[in-house]
Amino acid sequence: MRFLNIVFLGLLLLLAACAQKPLQPPSQGFAAQGRVNIRSQTEANTAMFDWLATPERDVLSLSSPLGNTLAELSILYQQGEIVSATLKHGQTTEIAPDPESLLQNLAGLTLPVSGMRWWLRGLPDPRMPFTRTDDSFSQSGWLVTATDFRDGTLPYKIELTRDDLRIRVMISEWSAAVP
């Protein structure tokens, strides 16, 4: 159970960097809502998420399926580069120079959190090497598959797999950010 809780916290951080097409973060920002499911060979967890992104900040809130807030992650950017990450969970607030450091310090996990800004759009992070297959790509040890492009530009289903871990993100709504 502890492993999956740590992985779930990792997913919170992993989700923290998503956006929409084209190949650069949107100048006006975006908002996305949906749910995420994390499965290992022995456990599964589901959470709802709300995400507001602007060029200067991402704010990701995770809640239980019943609506109770689990955590909130904020990532600050300067000129497109991450400068700090803050995670609030319960009465605790943790701060690190980037979401990967925050995850490493809290859970001992190393996940490519920053790449998610691109992955949820079905795109590889252009700053990192990747390998493309027919309808997916591999980057940083993860296989990323985006599907259900119902509006023609943004995926509504994203699956990340690595070893025995599978993360499914289902977007229910993409919209413009309202700062």
From TrEMBL:
Keywords recorded for this protein, A-Z: Cell outer membrane, Chaperone, Lipoprotein, Membrane, Palmitate, Protein transport, Signal, Transport
Pfam families given in the database record: LolB
UniProt signal peptide: 1-19
Membrane listed as a keyword: yes
Membrane topology, as annotated: Lipid-anchor
UniProt cross-references to CDD domains, sorted A to Z: LolB (cd16326)
Subcellular location: Cell outer membrane
InterPro entries named in the record: LolA/LolB/LppX (IPR029046), OM_lipoprot_LolB (IPR004565)
Primary location group: membrane
Assembly: Monomer.
The family this protein is said to belong to: Belongs to the LolB family.
Stated name of the protein: Outer-membrane lipoprotein LolB
